[in-house]
Amino acid sequence: MILFEGVSKAFGSNQVLDGFSLEIPHGQTTVILGYSGSGKSVALKHIVGLLTPDEGRVVVDGSVVHELKRDELAELRRSIGYVFQFAALFDSMTVEENIRLGLARRDLSPAEIEERIVESLRLVELDDAGRLLPAELSGGMRKRVGIARAIALRPRYILYDEPTTGLDPVTAALIDHLMIRVRQESGATGVVVTHDMRSAYSVADRIAMLYDGAIRQAGSVEEIRATRDPVVRQFIEGRPNLPSATVSAPGPGVGP
Amino acid sequence: MQQLLAIRGTGLGGAIGRVGSAAIDCLRALADVRTWAPLIVAQMRRLGVDSVPIAIFIAVFTGIVLALLSSYTFTGAVPLYFVGSLVGKTIMMELGPVLTGMALAGRVGANIAAELGTMRVTEQVDALETLAYDTNAFLIVPRVLAGGIMFPIVTAFAVAVGVVSGWITAVNLLDLSTPEFFKGLRLFYQFKDVWFGLVKAGTFGLAVTLMGCLQGLRARGGAQGVGRAATRAVVLGCESILVLDAFWAIVLL
Ligand SMILES: Nc1ncnc2c1ncn2[C@@H]1O[C@H](COP(=O)(O)OP(=O)(O)O)[C@@H](O)[C@H]1O
Ligand SMILES: [Mg+2]
């Protein structure tokens, strides 16, 4: 289980997270919604200790991430697969080498490593792309390699940072399908950060909305669909700004 | 508390503190041999071998100028074979290491900062860390060690070429014979001249590559941030060379 407990994080005067608390239960896929620049990536990076909270803490499987020692943090990272927003493939290495790099840090035999490379590439339907360089791939293919690199590790948690952003609808649906399959086949707990509602509805067990540095609302997909919170409603329905009276006082008699 | 940290993090003191703590992190990362050892040969080739042409180019012209300059300075008052002494000493102890170091600071420092800066802004550095790699052991140590090893080697080439270039100049453009040139070269020669220059070059190599790594990893933003990191790496690399140069002169001479 991943627990955010009152996490605050600022960069200079830019207060990005401000009392962010969220419980991410085991074995499910939790989607974190939020506007661009609201701090979704910042929140994810706290889970793997790439960022340290100014206040509060992130607890993964009972350990406080920012209190872990070097080796303990490395150990924790071995149990988490991270799919970066722009894939973050190592551009001097081929697709295979990208996947191998992560596997090389585990106690695996060379044969096992090669097997996992083939298997993970097959899962993302890029069987033949192993020898290509990242520069030779399309955006969608890169994201799939990023996913392959993460799942090859057979992690307990997979964090996806905007997996479908910037993709055409068909490729996006393919990635959604992939995330669902990974969850079914590996049972890994998923955290998906996105502002793509169609994707959110298709992969989520739970949805949480990040707004103004904190969780505005969290609940099951049905609960979020039926929400009365105006901020969340506006986001999930993708409406432009309404007159402020409508947003702050959604009662009978107000509205169009 | 936070304000205090912010103050400590700025200014010259902060900069030196950062470099110091980065150096300590690197020393710790040295223990992770399994990670850096396989990478070091490629870095040595990239940082060292590819830098030999520019080092030789500089050395040839330095040798010519030194020979002519010393004969011009002596103007008959000093025996001409002292040209050999001056060319030898200056190139071995000072100009060989410093000019080579400066050239490599531009080439190697900018190259490393641009590479690691791009990796930083495209989140490749974050990705490495999430794959449980230690950035120090995987990125910094192989580059810094390669710099420490290769700078002296490239400098040794440059010194040899510079002396030969001085000798050819002396024989062809000055009224000096080969035996006289080498008599002068041997006259005040001490083994210390050689190792002093090479030790200096080694520390220049460590400093230039470390600056390149640190500036690259601190890059923020996009292409502009990477460009700024590369410029800063070159400037700081050159500055460290000059400071170290004076330091070794004070300590060892
Ligand atoms: N390493 C950093 N240094 C400074 N500011 C940052 C850093 N990372 C993120 N930010 C800032 O934090 C805010 C949230 O960023 P991010 O989490 O990337 O948003 P998103 O929700 O789109 O993923 C942005 O204003 C961004 O500029
Ligand atoms: Mg983001």
List the helices and strands and how they pair.
The complex is a heterodimer of chains A (256) and B (253).
Chain A: E1 2-11, E2 14-24, E3 29-33, H1 40-47, E4 55-60, E5 63-64, H2 70-78, E6 80-83, H3 95-103, H4 110-123, H5 139-151, E7 157-161, H6 169-186, E8 189-194, H7 197-203, E9 206-211, E10 214-220, H8 221-225, H9 230-237, H10 244-248
Parallel strand pairs in A: 3-8, 3-9, 6-7, 7-8
Antiparallel strand pairs in A: 1-2, 1-4, 4-5, 9-10
Helix pairs in contact in A: 3-4, 3-5, 4-5, 5-6
Chain B: H1 2-8, H2 11-29, H3 33-47, H4 52-74, H5 82-121, H6 124-130, H7 135-173, H8 178-187, H9 191-217, H10 223-252
The complex binds adenosine-5'-diphosphate and magnesium ion (MG).
Relevant terms:
heterodimer; A: alpha/beta; Rossmann fold; globular; B: mainly alpha; 0% strand; binds adenosine-5'-diphosphate; binds magnesium ion
